[in-house]
Design goal:
Oligomer: single chain
């Protein structure tokens, strides 16, 4: 047996044993990529199993995440805190080895993958973050940010459209420290991909501006090693290494077949494979000699120790930069943050502007950016509509780094790349598009929520109020849809003050993404009944609060965004008829729902009829106003698509008028 056979076959054996034990999983890819993994992890990857969060480690992304047992086997064998017992419990309840890699479950897992292609976008984001931070922090003789991002990808990843969005942009940006190893095994679940995937992948990536190394024997460790070295030598382009492999390599009867893609091999075939590859060990048994060949702890500790020495020298020469780098990589906010935010909100409140909340958002970005050098903004070709750029922003242009990226018309790619930037650390990404196009990005938003990432989505043109562009561009169901996503915080502010507070909340949130839903049209400034700015911020941060009250109230109107002004106007009209009404602004339903019962009852008192107003679908508001047949609750909303017409005409047509709100309130009394 060759010097590399035992280490590679250990990966094969652990993969097929774990999948067989679970009777569920994907053994074929780990078995087919074993030598590729050995070449990368054994000869190139700079990492320290004892410290998976070392700042300048290489990042590794398994974009073809269905082959998760390959990653788990690598982490176990190289010395991460992932014991064999966890491999035995593959795909079991509360194990560290879920069916697809999940960020936070096991040390060394850099991102959650499984939805194909998104790992590629994450890797592009990580490479962007590396390049931006290197430009900001490195100084002559002190390269403290100088790592590579590596990704494994399969045919399915390259079929997904997000691979085009992300990889096209990566080529334009010249991400020379990004290396993707493509597992070209010609098989997916339905069989041989030649019936539906005939792209010339090398030429495709050459057209993107990538450095491409074609036709590498993926089962020759030396050939893969040489290809990776060649890729690393090209520093002005990302590299694609095309590795030809056999899925389930070593399986006598299922190797090269789709039968090995997404199902256990079966006990007989596992036994036959053991015999074929010469693996004489029992399931989940790895000899000490193989452990020694894989063990990366000594080398990893040495690499980090050497970096620590360099960082100490850097700290002596550039103490302020070093302190800033440590703060940023720890995800901490500046010490002056709270005071800065309070002063900003006070200034905005005193100014009392009646502006579109998309403009208020830009003002908030402008006000916060001076305190947040980690801001990394962008837009999917809508910068001047989303208003996501600020005066000190430095646009990324080709290979020149900056802190503002025009993603082009790539909503899904943008969201996936933002996830990678957030995962890398050191930057807080935000990106803009129209709310209706959040559908394009949805699966990446879902993964951001699942991974609890601090990323901020700026969704403008948030209702039928955008007007003439018509129903193709008018979001109706989107606010409700985003609110249904677990761990996605959704803010729909009513004026500049709420917009600033929403931004502050989004930046401070470390355990999940935030969607900001912003208007195209101007909205009036609202006067609030609080003693000072701190009290105002506290009230708004609760997600729902009493904006305008009345003694002996007979009804409560709940509203968000552009409809808050309508609620205030309806309150005044109802007062003329002797009907006392409270107006509750509820910019963030999830934040309100997290408040204790006493607070929620103080805002929405039991037994008092309620009417909710929002220019969107109505079902989500029923939990606040009562069932559809309730006589004490109603919703003024829109449960159909919009029309192409000026926004004012549309609001009138669909019943967003003082007269209709007054009528609706009287109907529940």
């Amino acid at each position: 047996m060759s010097q590399t056979a035992d280490p590679a076959n250990a990966l094969r054996a652990l993969a097929m044993d774990a999948v067989q034990a679970a009777n569920s999983g994907h053994p074929g890819m780990p078995m087919g990529m074993a030598e590729i993994a050995l070449a990368l992890w054994g000869r190139h990857l700079r990492h320290n199993p004892a410290n998976p969060k070392w700042a300048d480690r290489d990042r590794f992304v398994l974009s073809n995440g269905h082959g998760s047992m390959l990653l788990y086997a690598l982490l176990h064998l190289t010395g991460y805190a992932l014991p064999m017992d966890q491999l035995r419990r593959f795909r079991q309840w509360h194990s560290m080895t879920p069916g697809h890699p999940e960020y936070g479950c096991a040390p060394g897992v850099e991102t959650t993958t499984g939805p194909l292609g998104q790992g590629l976008a994450n890797a592009v984001g990580m490479a962007i973050a590396e390049k931006v931070l290197a430009a900001e922090f490195n100084r002559p003789g002190h390269d403290i940010v100088a790592h590579h991002t590596y990704a494994f990808a399969g045919d399915g990843c390259l079929m997904e459209g997000i691979s085009h969005e992300a990889c096209s942009l990566a080529g334009t940006l010249g991400l020379g420290r990004l290396v993707v190893l493509y597992d070209d095994n010609g098989i997916s679940i339905d069989g041989q991909v030649k019936a539906w995937f005939t792209d010339d992948t090398p030429k495709r990536f050459e057209a993107y501006g990538w450095h491409v190394i074609p036709a590498v024997d993926g089962h020759d460790v030396g050939a893969v090693d040489a290809a990776i070295r060649a890729a690393k030598a090209v520093t002005d382009k990302p590299s694609l290494v095309c590795c030809k492999t056999v899925i389930a390599k070593g399986s006598p009867n299922k190797g090269g077949s789709h039968d090995a893609h997404g199902a256990a091999l079966g006990e007989k075939e596992v036994a036959a494979t053991r015999e074929a590859i010469g693996w004489r060990h029992a399931p989940f048994e790895v000899p000490e000699s193989v452990y020694r060949s894989w063990d990366a702890r000594g080398r990893g500790a040495g690499l980090e120790r050497e970096w620590n020495e360099r960082f100490a020298a850097y700290t002596k020469q550039h103490p302020d930069l070093a302190a800033e780098f440590r703060r940023r990589m720890a995800g901490e906010l500046p010490g002056s943050w709270r005071a800065h935010c309070e002063a900003l909100v006070a200034k905005i409140d005193a100014k009392g502007e009646s502006i579109a909340t998309r403009k208020a958002s830009q003002n908030a970005i402008e006000g916060l950016a001076s305190a947040l050098p980690e801001f990394f903004g962008g837009s999917a070709d809508l910068t001047w509509s989303n208003l996501t750029q600020w005066s000190a922003a430095k646009p990324v242009a080709g290979s020149r780094p900056g802190n503002y990226l025009s993603y082009g018309v790539r909503e899904f790619g943008m969201a996936g790349i933002m996830n990678g930037i957030a995962l890398h650390g050191g930057l807080i990404p935000f990106g803009g598009t129209f709310l209706v196009f959040s559908d394009y990005a949805r699966n990446a938003l879902r993964l951001a929520a699942l991974m609890k990432l601090r990323s901020i989505l700026v969704f403008t043109h948030d209702s039928i109020g955008l007007g003439e562009d018509g129903p193709t561009h008018q979001p109706v169901e989107h606010a409700a849809s985003l609110r249904l996503m677990p761990n996605m915080e959704v803010w729909r502010p009513c004026d500049a003050v709420e917009t600033a507070v929403a931004w502050i909340a989004a930046v401070e949130r470390k355990d999940g993404p935030t969607s900001l839903l912003l208007s195209r049209q101007n909205l009036p400034h609202q006067k609030r009944p609080f003693a000072d700015t701190a009290a105002t911020i506290t009230a708004i941060r609760r997600g729902g609060y009493v904006l305008a009250d009345a003694p002996a109230l007979r009804a409560v109107i709940i509203a968000t965004g552009s409809e808050v002004a309508l609620a205030i106007a309806a309150k005044a009209k109802l007062a003329e008829d002797g009907i006392a009404v409270r107006v509750v602004s509820m910019p963030c339903t999830s934040a309100f729902d997290r408040q204790d019962a006493a607070y929620r009852a103080s805002v929405l008192p039991a037994g008092v009829p309620r009417v909710a107003i929002e220019a969107g679908v109505t079902d989500g508001w029923r939990k606040y106003v009562g069932a559809v047949d309730s006589r004490q609750g109603a919703v003024v909303g829109i449960d159909r698509f919009g029309e192409s017409a000026p926004g004012g005409e549309l609001f009138k047509h669909f019943g967003f008028t003082v007269e209709n709100v007054v009528k609706t309130v009287k109907g529940v009394l």
